Amino acid sequence: MTRIATADGTAPSVPSQGRRSRAHGPAGAGRPSSVRARRRIGVTGRRVARSEWTKIISLRSTVWTLLAAFVMTVGLAVVFAVTLAGRWDDMSPADRADHDLTSLTLLGVNLAQLAIGVLGVLVVSGEYSTGMIRATLSAVPRRLPVLWAKSAVFGLLAFALMLVTALVAFLVGQAILSTKGIDLSLADPGAFRGVVGAAFYVTAIGLLGLGLGALLRSTPGAIAGLFGLVLVIPMVVSFLPDSLDGLERYLPSMAGNAVMRALPDPDVLSPGGGFLTLLLYVAVTLAAAAVGLRRRDA
Amino acid sequence: MIEARGLTKRYGEKVAVEDLSFTARPGVVTGFLGPNGAGKSTTMRMILGLDRPTRGEVRVNGLRYQDMTDPLCQVGALLEARAVHTGRSARNHLLALAQTHGISARRVDEVIGLAGLTDVAGRRVGGFSLGMGQRLGIASALLGDPATIILDEPVNGLDPEGIRWIRNLLSQLATEGRTVFLSSHLMSEMALVATHLVVVGRGRLIAQTSVADFIAAASPNTVRVRSPQAIPLREALAGHGVTITATGEDTLEITGRTNEEIGEAARACGIALYELTRHQVSLEDAFMDLTRDAVEYHATNAPAPAGASAGRRSAAHAGVAA
Ligand SMILES: Nc1ncnc2c1ncn2[C@@H]1O[C@H](COP(=O)(O)OP(=O)(O)OP(=O)(O)O)[C@@H](O)[C@H]1O
Ligand SMILES: [Mg+2]
């Protein structure tokens, strides 16, 4: 050991039972100026976020998953755009009007959401399956900062990547459609909002996965739950009696559809409604995860 | 300093730890002993705030773990199961932990060197051998330069060289004035590092004592004597507090007399002795005796009061050697 611990390592401050996690929090006693000189060591929200950033970018699976999300989204934009461009001349005017050329180039996010969703699950469940969570929670015994930091770091990373991805998909797709002279630009009504909406939708699904991972603590369980929610339940709901048709629009996938499209659709929520619905899903899941994290043994 | 008071943990019907109170002091290595399922790991998880006690509490340096603003600098821990993501490199793992506290990357490299992991720090932990994994656990325990160190079965699966390394490290950490608390069911191993013991069985405290007192009290020392005149010798040695058992035609097992007393008594009577050996129980035997039926023993039956003697380490060594 190069450093010697004081026999009574009790010197560091005792927080006053408060919620504050800042190292320089506790009320009372003024500290010697030497303390101000070097940065005090201790847990802060910002530091936990930094740690989570290190964690997420130091896993190969993150890189692969993000790459997969990008390739799938852009790839499908090409496929759909080429297909539509090929059929365009044979389509009736009504048929043509039916196609939302913004969301068409963004449809690939329905595949990307699976990759980002799994990544979200793994951000938490990967720590439970490997035991890392015990190290994490030993370092941050208040626990909740870990969940918030994971959500923020993962959410920002997923959103940034998906924003770029959706932009590229849109631009590439529209470039293909320009061969028929039917391409849109980002300045067209709803187009830019659709691009941002697509990134937001995938991020929301990722955060939903993260929350489920924290709630269920098991990778297969959380993935099954997430895929059930975005893939299986919509199918089940479509078989329900017509009287329940109004419910369908509140499913995550349909709310996603709402935020991505430029043309309004009576069967789908407004973009704002879709945005709020997705936000609510994420908020409720993360809140439940937070309660579980506080209450349950690690 | 670790102080547990009335610590109790239930998992449903199962009582893992029951009304456990003990103290682990700074400057010494305190061994936490108990057979499988005694509740050692559960207790350690409660110290780290990972499991919530059903009743009671445990404090480290007067603080509850949840209330610490810099827990890594207060308590370093190596838990039973590996607590590392297998997909990350050793260095990134330590760096992520350090960053939660604003501990510098320089310190990360320092503990990597300390644990002898410099050559493999960039490799993914998934490919680590058991010993390398333990070393990484030790490195993360030392990251915050904590005054208290908790290790759950640190030598499990280590080769002799690794065991010696941990043993020396722990002794050194205690010498530096830190509280070192380590669990094991390898009694012989414990005898080489620990000076104090907290013994548990079925979740309850059986004894809190020094290693030397533990051995002394767990089973009285007997002297084995072989003599062609066993019967007159027996008469010469009889007295209050002395138990003599004939274990063979010419052998006696004597309790309550020292080797010196027996030798002198034999000389005074002109009796020849062929053998005079003190049989001292090993820590292993003492432990087996105490925990044979854990529920029969309670804290009040403790062989000796806690912290009776701090400096009798050499006696412990002698005990094990015997
Ligand atoms: N999460 C849990 N849920 C249910 N029972 C548990 C849990 N953790 C521990 N137990 C039970 O509590 C008891 C104490 O377990 P613990 O792991 O603390 O023992 P230990 O002293 O560490 O044993 P070992 O020497 O085998 O490591 C055991 O009977 C165990 O089965
Ligand atoms: Mg154990």
UniProtKB/TrEMBL annotation, chain B:
Q: Which PROSITE patterns match?
A: ABC_TRANSPORTER_2 (PS50893)
Chain ranges of the ABC transporter domain:
2-227
The Swiss-Prot or TrEMBL record annotates one GO molecular function as:
ATP hydrolysis activity
This protein's superkingdom?
Answer: Bacteria
Chain spans, region Disordered: 302-322
Protein name as catalogued? ATP-binding cassette domain-containing protein
The UniProt similarity line reads: Belongs to the ABC transporter superfamily.
Q: Which UniProt keywords apply?
A: ATP-binding, Nucleotide-binding, Transport
> Matching SMART domains, A to Z?
AAA
